[in-house]
Design a protein that fits this description.
seven-stranded mixed beta sheet; Glycerol-3-phosphate (1)-acyltransferase; single chain
């Protein structure tokens, strides 16, 4: 429904959607800059032949209209608290093992960096990936924050802003896969995933990432 508005209101480009497997469970890992990201990423996944489910904050199920979208789309709620977090983890593992495409923002929220590069990621995505052995496709999203900045009430569609998404080949985590990955394995997998996302983002932005991200 939003695709026509996306086409009219932005200069939207997706590259690398063929890296998303057309069948089988897969995790898509993206940086996060705007509330517009899910719309942009959904369009990219559809171009890759997949209907995505999102790993999203439980608070979205409390918002009118949005609640209906989250429920009908069978998206996965992330709840705070140890027991709830475990339930979310199990739901995600089940979704991937059932062959779904699940989109995760490893940072857990919008980047709080002034330079809009990714901040430190959480290890939840890595844990799911290592437990299931599912491929993790890195995705860089850039320009969505110019269309709908955090805190803005309405999108900015004039002049049309460039929004670019770039997907890369799955991150190699084969040496870390385990039914019960250790904390060290999860951290290493997270670093590899975020390094891939950051590299793609650098390509989209046409600039080198900050030294602290390169070292990480």
């Amino acid at each position: 429904m939003l695709a026509p508005f996306l086409a009219l209101g932005t200069r939207y480009r997706v590259t690398g959607a063929h890296h998303i497997p057309r069948e089988g469970g897969v995790l898509v890992a993206s940086n996060h800059l705007s509330y517009a990201d899910p719309v942009m990423i959904t369009a990219a996944c559809l171009m890759g032949g997949r209907v995505p489910r999102f790993f999203a904050k439980s608070g979205l199920w409390k918002v009118p209209v949005v609640r209906n979208v989250m429920t009908s789309g069978r998206h996965i709620a992330v709840n705070r608290g140890k027991a709830s977090a475990l339930e979310s983890f199990r739901d995600t593992v089940s979704a991937v093992r059932e062959g779904d495409c699940v989109v995760v923002f490893p940072e857990g929220t919008f980047s709080d960096r002034d330079d809009e590069w990714p901040m430190k990621a959480k290890t939840g995505l890595a844990r799911v990936a290592l437990t299931t052995g599912a491929p993790v496709v890195p995705l860089a999203c850039w320009g969505s924050h110019h269309v709908l900045p955090v805190g803005a009430r309405l999108p900015r569609v004039f002049p049309r802003r460039r929004v670019e998404l770039l997907a890369g080949p799955p991150v190699d985590l084969s040496d870390l896969v385990s039914e019960r990955p250790t904390a060290t394995q999860q951290r290493e997998a997270t670093q590899r995933i975020m390094a891939a996302v950051t590299s793609l983002l650098a390509e989209v932005r046409g600039e080198d990432p900050p030294p602290d991200l390169v070292k990480a």
